[in-house]
């Protein structure tokens, strides 16, 4: 995701309910370990059983159309009106425009991808050697070296590989009036492309809306101008690959940030430490705040306050923990909450320390949820957590209103649901890095011009 996208994600709010802070942080710590992700929210079985609405005309779909000079009509998402450009999935081209794919797309794609692969491979080798030289005093990891060799093998030329998305530019002056869908339909198309819904080009917009409700939605960022990958793009990809290798070979440290406090997941805090970390203050101060909540609602803002700079810099405490463990890769999880709106966001970021000791943010994933959507089963699962049970006992001893505790539990369960979204995206990012699919991403799709 881009830096601009990064800045839109808020970090820990300056002032939210202390009880919500405790339960939400406990929920995040409970579920951040590898292979211990929160359960998926219940499927909407009734929605799945409903018959699909029939597509009676192109106006029932979510895709824009682009007419090529030879009469071929492509389906996708318009990303520019002048010149007319359409974002198209190559999976659709394979089934519905195979001739255009073979004659106009594949030759350009092979040349571009092979060139990028060659550059990426050279940079990956040189960067890995520089890191190895800097870590010469440390014991080498055979598993890491084996996985690196596998990634390098995947960067060998592959004549059958195609980018997942391309941008087709027409030589015509613009789109025809009936080629473009409504703004709301095009928003659905963007989400459907990001979710990679099967056969989205031929489905009714109502079907797509229903299916998106059953998936973790994330909007598709408008692609940048197509072209060769820059040196910065390749360097970022290399660091992401090296970091992904470390995560897969258990050579990464996993941390949770709460305000100024950074918690190592391997050293789960006891309840007293959890209380202190949740509010970034002493236990005595936090107990006073909880007592104030018991006395009645405080006139304090609940709006999340962003701190964009903290999103682009690894906390010093996190870097120190990594240094103590002799590790170069950090997976940092954190959340933000809007108590008034009942919404939460979870962010999981992948950091890597280059040979020059500088820390680089290589990738991150984010998820969001609303406490109003939480199911009873999700609340019950959170209540069974030992740390949450002790917090519940504390709330009872302080005679906090039951409604406040239920609100906190709802927000904590929402954190877990948002964490599931972030975790799924994070795993996808790791897999893309390890299978050399970073070169086929959606941010810089290949530009194909329809020559007259």
Can you offer a commentary on this structure?
- It is built from 16 helices and ten strands.
- With about 450 residues, it is of the alpha+beta class.
- The chain has two domains: about 240 residues, no CATH class; about 170 residues, no CATH class.
- It has a five-stranded mixed sheet with strand order 1-2-3-4-10, sandwiched between helices. Strands 6-5-7-8-9 form a five-stranded mixed sheet, sandwiched between helices.
- About 40% of the residues are buried.
Structural class, by secondary structure, is alpha+beta
Helical residues, percent: 40-55%
What's the total helix number? 16
Described by its quaternary structure, the protein is single chain
Output mean pLDDT.
76
Keywords:
10 strands, 5-stranded mixed beta sheet, 16 helices, alpha+beta, 452 residues, single chain, 2 domains, flat, disordered N terminus
What's the helix and strand layout?
Layout: H1 3-7, H2 18-31, H3 45-49, E1 64-67, E2 73-80, E3 85-89, H4 90-96, H5 98-134, H6 142-154, E4 165-170, H7 183-195, H8 205-213, H9 231-248, E5 252-258, E6 261-264, H10 271-279, H11 283-295, H12 308-311, H13 316-325, E7 329-338, E8 343-353, E9 359-370, H14 376-383, H15 386-397, H16 402-434, E10 446-450
Parallel strand pairs: 4-10, 5-7
Antiparallel strand pairs: 1-2, 2-3, 3-4, 5-6, 7-8, 8-9
Helix pairs in contact: 2-10, 2-15, 2-16, 5-9, 6-9, 7-8, 9-16, 14-16
């Amino acid at each position: 995701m881009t830096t601009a996208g990064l800045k839109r994600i808020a970090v820990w709010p300056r002032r939210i309910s202390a009880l919500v802070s405790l339960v939400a942080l406990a929920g995040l710590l409970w579920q951040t370990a590898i292979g211990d992700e929160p359960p998926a929210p219940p499927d909407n079985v009734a929605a799945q059983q409903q018959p699909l609405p029939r597509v009676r005309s192109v106006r029932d779909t979510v895709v824009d159309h682009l007419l090529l000079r030879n009469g071929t009509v492509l389906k996708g998402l318009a990303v520019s009106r002048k010149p007319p450009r359409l974002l198209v999935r190559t999976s659709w081209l394979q089934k519905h425009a195979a001739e255009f794919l073979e004659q106009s797309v594949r030759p350009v794609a092979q040349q571009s991808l092979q060139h990028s692969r060659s550059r990426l491979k050279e940079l990956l080798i040189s960067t890995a050697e520089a890191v190895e030289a800097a870590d010469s005093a440390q014991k080498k990891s055979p598993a890491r070296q084996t996985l690196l060799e596998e990634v390098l093998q995947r960067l060998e030329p592959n004549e059958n590989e195609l980018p997942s998305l391309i941008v087709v530019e027409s030589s015509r002056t613009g789109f025809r009036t009936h080629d473009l869908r409504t703004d709301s339909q095009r928003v659905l198309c963007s989400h459907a492309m990001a979710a990679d819904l099967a056969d989205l080009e031929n489905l009714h917009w109502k079907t797509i809306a229903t299916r998106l409700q059953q998936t973790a939605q994330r909007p598709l960022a408008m692609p940048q101008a197509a072209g060769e990958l820059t040196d910065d793009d390749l360097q970022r990809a290399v660091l992401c690959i090296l970091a992904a290798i470390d995560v897969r070979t258990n050579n990464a440290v996993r941390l949770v940030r709460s305000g100024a406090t950074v918690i190592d997941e391997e050293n789960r805090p006891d309840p007293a430490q959890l209380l202190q970390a949740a509010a970034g203050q002493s236990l005595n101060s936090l107990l006073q705040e909880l007592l104030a909540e018991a006395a009645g609602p405080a006139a304090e803002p609940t709006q999340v306050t962003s701190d964009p700079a903290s999103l682009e810099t690894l906390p010093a405490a996190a870097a120190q923990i990594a240094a103590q463990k002799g590790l170069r890769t950090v997976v940092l999880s954190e959340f933000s909450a809007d108590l008034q709106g009942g919404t939460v966001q979870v962010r999981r970021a992948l950091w890597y320390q280059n040979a020059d000791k500088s820390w680089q943010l290589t990738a991150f994933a984010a998820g969001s949820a609303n406490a109003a959507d939480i199911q009873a089963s999700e609340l019950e699962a959170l209540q069974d957590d030992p740390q949450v049970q002790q917090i519940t006992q504390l709330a009872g001893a302080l005679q906090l209103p039951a409604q406040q505790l239920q609100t906190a539990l709802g927000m904590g369960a929402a954190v877990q649901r948002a964490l599931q979204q972030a975790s799924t995206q994070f795993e996808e990012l790791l897999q893309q890095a390890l299978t050399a699919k970073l070169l086929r991403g959606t941010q810089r799709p290949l530009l194909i011009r329809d020559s007259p």
